[in-house]
Amino acid sequence: MEITRLVLPGPTPTALDAARLCARLARLYDGGAGAVVCDAAAVTAPDLGAVQALARLRLAAHGRGTLTVTGAGPALRGLLHLVGLVELLGEAEEREPPGRVQEGVEPDDLPP
């Protein structure tokens, strides 16, 4: 499967950018792309517009191919973790275990 690259504009994508990116992504998938890597290196001042653009791209990719974000800086990574879109970075979202559930007991564990 060939990997195609899509570049997010910086310093932060706007709603107009998001619409253009989604149209470009659709053309890439229609042209036979199976996997698209979205380069976010230029997004140096991420805000909710950047999150919206990535969320819209994720929806546009649904069922058509894979979409992975690369080059995301710490601020964008933090926002994606905050809003639950961390899977776009190729990372699993860390979840807290349910309350009052003990993960395991070792013989040398101290009592609670």
Assign an overall shape. globular
Order of helices and strands: EHEHEH
Q: Describe the main β-sheet briefly.
A: 3 strands, parallel
User: Using DSSP, what is the number of strands?
Assistant: 3
Count of alpha/pi helices? 3
Radius of gyration: 18 Å
Quote the beta fraction. Answer: 5-15%
The neighbouring-strand order within the major sheet is 1-2-3
Q: What's the overall average pLDDT, rounded?
A: 85
Distance between the termini: 52 Å
User: Structural class per helix/strand content?
Assistant: alpha/beta
Helix content: 25-40%
Low-confidence stretches: none
Description:
This protein has 112 residues and is an alpha/beta fold. It is 36% helix and 13% strand. It has 3 helices and 3 strands, in the order βαβαβα. The protein has helices spanning 15-30, 48-61, 74-83, and strands spanning 3-7, 35-39, 66-70. It has a 3-stranded parallel sheet, with helices on one face. α1 (15-30) packs parallel to α2 (48-61). The chain is globular. The termini are far apart.
